[in-house]
Specification:
Elements: H1 15-19, H2 28-41, E1 45-49, H3 52-62, E2 70-73, H4 79-88, E3 91-94, E4 97-98, E5 103-104, H5 106-112, E6 117-123, H6 132-142, E7 145-150, E8 157-158, E9 161-162, E10 170-174, E11 187-191, H7 194-204, H8 237-247, H9 250-267, E12 274-277, E13 283-284, E14 290-294, H10 297-306, H11 331-337, E15 340-343
Helix pairs in contact: 2-8, 3-4, 3-7
Length: 349
C-alpha cells in the first residue's frame, strides 16, 4: 500500500565525521541550518530547538505567559501542537473552523476573545494555509500575539510568500520524521521582533547568556546571573546537519508533492461523492497530504485503501481529549471531520 507519510532522508556524507569529531552539541551545523532556513523563508530571526514541543515551551516562556491564561486555537489540530498548552497550564479555548477548508474561522476567533486571552494560534491544517490576514488583523486590533502554527506547512505559501514570512509576529515549525525538512526530531521559531528573538536564545539555553558565561580563565563566571526559568532546547549538530542536507532538496520535494496532488485533482474529477479539494484561492499548500471533502467518507476511504492508497482523517478533533477540559465540538469542526480525507501526495508517489 502506498503510505500516507514517509520519512525522507538524503545522503549524509559528513555524518560519520561529525559523530567522531567531538563537536556534537549545537555549533557550526546548528548555526548553518538556522542560516539556511532564514534565507529560504526570507526572514532574519530563526531559532532552532531540539524538539517541536520544547519550541513551544521556549515560546511560552519568552512571551511570559502565565498558567490559567487563555489561548485560542482550533481543535482540528495535531496533538503535538495542543499538548504543550496543557503541559504549560494554559487554558485552551477552542474556536471553530471554516468547514470548507479546515482552517481557523476569523469570526469564531473574535467571539472567543476574553480579557484572559493572550494568544491566537493560527493552525495551517495539513499544509494548507489559513486566513492569515484576517487572523493577524484581529490580533493587531485586540493587542494580542498571533502565532502561525506551521507544523505541517513548511514551504506552503500565502499570497506568494512562504509561511513564516507573511506578516505574522511569530511562526513555529516542526522537523519531526514525517515533515519536510526532517531532522528526525526538531523545531524552529521565527520571530519578527528582534528583542523577543534574543530573549528566546537565552531561554533555549538554560537561561545562560553565553557572551558572559565564562571568565578569562574559562571558568563559569559569577557575574552571569541565571534569572529566567528556562529549558535545555538547543539542537545537536547531528540533527542540524541532517536538516542542512534536507534543505538542498527541499524545492524538488515540494514540487513533486504539488505535481502528485495535481494528479489526484485530475483523476478524481468525476468522483460522484467528491465535494471539493480543500485548497483556498491565494494559497499554495505544500501538499503534505492531498486533502479532499467527501459526501461518503467511510465508503470512499475503503475504496482508496482497496486500490492500494493509504488514507486517513489525520487528526481527531481535540475536543475528545479530557486533558483540555470539557468543551463542545464546534459545528464547523464536526462538519469538516465527517467529510475530510487525506490522500498520499508525498515525494515517494
Amino acid at each position: 500500500m502506498i503510505p500516507l507519510y514517509k520519512p525522507y532522508m538524503p545522503e549524509l556524507p559528513e555524518l560519520d565525521n561529525i559523530l567522531h569529531s567531538g563537536a556534537l552539541a549545537y555549533g557550526k551545523w546548528g548555526r548553518e541550518f538556522e542560516k539556511r532556513l532564514a534565507e529560504y523563508l526570507g526572514v532574519k530571526h530563526v531559532l532552532l530547538t531540539n524538539t517541536y514541543g520544547l519550541a513551544w515551551q521556549v515560546l511560552f516562556r519568552t512571551l511570559e505567559l502565565e498558567p490559567g491564561e487563555e489561548v485560542i486555537a482550533t481543535p482540528m489540530s495535531c496533538l503535538q501542537s495542543t499538548m504543550p498548552m496543557a503541559q504549560y497550564g494554559l487554558k485552551t479555548v477552542w474556536a471553530d473552523i471554516d468547514p470548507k477548508y479546515g482552517v481557523l474561522d476569523p469570526d469564531s476567533v473574535k467571539s472567543k476573545i476574553t480579557v484572559k486571552t493572550k494568544v491566537i494560534i493560527n493552525y495551517h491544517f495539513c499544509g494548507y494555509p489559513g486566513y492569515v490576514d484576517e487572523i493577524n488583523a484581529i490580533g493587531k486590533e485586540k493587542g494580542m500575539i498571533v502565532i502561525d502554527d506551521c507544523i505541517e506547512a513548511f514551504g506552503a505559501k500565502y499570497k506568494g510568500k512562504r509561511l513564516g514570512n507573511v506578516g505574522t509576529p511569530i511562526s513555529i515549525f516542526n522537523f519531526q520524521t514525517v515533515r519536510l525538512p526532517n531532522t528526525i526530531e526538531g523545531g524552529a521559531i521565527v520571530f519578527e521582533d528582534e528583542k523577543l528573538y534574543k530573549k528566546a536564545i537565552v531561554i533555549r539555553d538554560l537561561g545562560i547568556d553565553r557572551s558572559i558565561f565564562r571568565d578569562a580563565n574559562g571558568e563559569i563566571s559569577k557575574d552571569c546571573d541565571i534569572a529566567i526559568p528556562s529549558v535545555n532546547a538547543t539542537p545537536s549538530d547531528v540533527n542540524s546537519y541532517i536538516g542542512c542536507c534536507q534543505m538542498e532538496h527541499i524545492d524538488e520535494l515540494l514540487e513533486k508533492q504539488a505535481a502528485n496532488a495535481k494528479q489526484w485533482e485530475n483523476g478524481l474529477f468525476d468522483m460522484p461523492s467528491l465535494i471539493n479539494f480543500i485548497q483556498r484561492e491565494g494559497t499554495d499548500p505544500n501538499y503534505w497530504v492531498c486533502g479532499i471533502l467527501s459526501s461518503n467518507k467511510e465508503e470512499d476511504m475503503k475504496m482508496f485503501k482497496e486500490q492500494g492508497y493509504a488514507c486517513s482523517a489525520v487528526h481527531l478533533p481535540n475536543t475528545y481529549y479530557s486533558v483540555f477540559g470539557k468543551q463542545d465540538m464546534p459545528k464547523g469542526v464536526a462538519e469538516f471531520y465527517n467529510k475530510f480525507i487525506a490522500l498520499p501526495s508525498g515525494w515517494w508517489m
